[in-house]
Amino acid sequence: MNTVKALALPLLVTLLHCPVCLSVTVSSSKPKVEVHEHTDAVLSCEFRTEKDQNPRIEWKKKEKGVTFVYFNHKFTSSYAGRAKIEGATLTIHSVTQKDSGDYRCEVTASEDHVNLGEATVTLNVLVPPHVPSCEVPSSVFVGSSLELHCKDKLSVPPATYRWYKDNKGLTETADTPYSMDTNKGTLKFKSVSKMDAGMYRCESSNNVGAPKSCVAKQLKINDYPLNMTILIAGAAGFVLLLFFCCICVCVCRRRGCCKKNNKTKSTKSYNPPPPPPPSRNLKTYKQTQSFMI
């Protein structure tokens, strides 16, 4: 116990008589900033030094790597003319979605004992809904499956979607012939009917701005034409006929093989007589033949 007191007392005296041993301090009063697109974003940065009255101030943005925003008392090219700095606080004018990300304020006080301090500010630029792209076919056949698509890739936070038919909002229930995904923007039909024909449009919305809708598109539900029906029926009949013929051929071949096997078993084997021994000459052979006759 006495040893601990002996070590603590000199350390306390050193801290009281050596203020330069404390480091430069950097902080942000608002580490997370959310602003609407095309407005100004204020990224606060406050610092305190113990001795250095003219510290170096830098701002960097973390992306795939780290890029400079403010360096050597001036802004880099992408921020020049649309940003300003007061003390260490950075203001970016008319921000866009590309400006979203993590920014780091660095203060270097070379005369302080620990001469570097930093603070991080996250900027999120909110984007209102844009006019979504809507995929609605012009026509489909009765009984076909169908899927309509709606997408707004620019809104931040991501938009949610709602489908309208003939300017009436669609609501999914247990009895409806369709299903909807409000996050993905899909409208699915398992089997369309004549009742599903109409004008379809999609609306995207988030809590940043007013909803936006695509232009309504006409969806027609067609019956299969007579020639198509005949063609389908003919194709089905041909397949059935071909299948029946294959079965008949297989049965006939099977029966033919059975008969052939039975006939072979019932017929006695016939061995032809051996050929006559070769004669020495043609004359002797003819005489032998005449004698035999």
Strand order within the widest beta sheet: 2-11-10-5-6-7
Name the quaternary structure.
Answer: single chain
CATH architecture of the domain at 21-126: Sandwich
Order of helices and strands: HEEEEEEEEEEEEEEEEEEEEEHH
What is the mean predicted local confidence, pLDDT?
A: 82
Q: How many individual helices?
A: 3
CATH third-level topology of the domain at 21-126? Immunoglobulin-like
Q: Specify the structural class.
A: alpha+beta
Unreliable spans are: 3-20
**Strand tally, please?**
21
InterPro entries: Ig-like_dom, Ig-like_dom_sf, Ig-like_fold, Ig_sub, Ig_sub2, Ig_V-set, JAM2
Protein name: Junctional adhesion molecule B-like
Pfam families: Ig_3, V-set
Keywords: Membrane, Signal, Transmembrane, Transmembrane helix
Report on the architecture of this protein.
- Helix content is 23%, strand content 34%.
- Among the domains are: 21-126, Immunoglobulins (Immunoglobulin-like, Sandwich); 133-222, Immunoglobulins (Immunoglobulin-like).
- The strands form 5 sheets. It has a 6-stranded mixed sheet, with no helix packed on it. Strands 13, 15, 16, 19, 20 and 21 form a 6-stranded mixed sheet that branches. A 4-stranded antiparallel sheet has the order 12-14-18-17, with no helix packed on it.
- The protein has helices at residues 2-17, 226-266, 282-292, and strands at 25-27, 32-36, 41-43, 46-48, 56-62, 66-71, 74-75, 83-86, 89-92, 101-108, 116-126, 133-135, 139-141, 146-151, 160-165, 168-169, 178-181, 186-189, 198-205, 212-213, 217-222.
